[in-house]
Known about the structure:
210 residues
Amino acid sequence: MSGSANRTATTVRQLVDFGALLAFMAAYAVNRFVRGLEGDQALVQATWVLVAASAIALLVGWIVEKRLAPLPLLAGGFALLFGTLTLIFNDPVLLKIKLTIQNGLLAAVLLGSLPFGRYPFKYLLESAFRLTEAGWRGLTLRYGLYFAAVAIANEVVWRTQTDDVWVAFRGGLWMASAAFGVWQVFFIMKHLIKDEDDDGVEPASPDPGL
């Protein structure tokens, strides 16, 4: 896939992923404030939208990129799994801990790879751009710490705050992750091994939005 086509596909996928999150938040707001459901039941009802949106996001990702990118596939798979379990057991806690488990797993894999000098991002992203070893190590450390911070923050918020606050936190997290992705572009460019046909680096948000 050419550089411009790859950027277009990435933009489309990010818009779809963000749309899925917005649909989930809108469904929660309707059930909570229009239908007057309690927070836990509003979350369960909104989960129907999350499951459908997750499936659509994965399908669109496959159509525009002719593949399922690893991070969106992981996030979409977790959303489908924990969303389905939430509906089966009528328990919104299962949806809330999805963020903790997903980000905790990613943090463990990335940070755990550092002592061995085998960086997962290098195998996943080397076809998009090439970095120095210091660059791959630094990028792995940064994303690993980010995922760990999200897992911890999610545990604190869902255990201590209301469902309304948790849903707002989920939306704010997407914006924070987008800013984090843009911030990493400066680090990547510093350690980039430039190719003649390289036409830039796209910011990689660590939050697919589901």
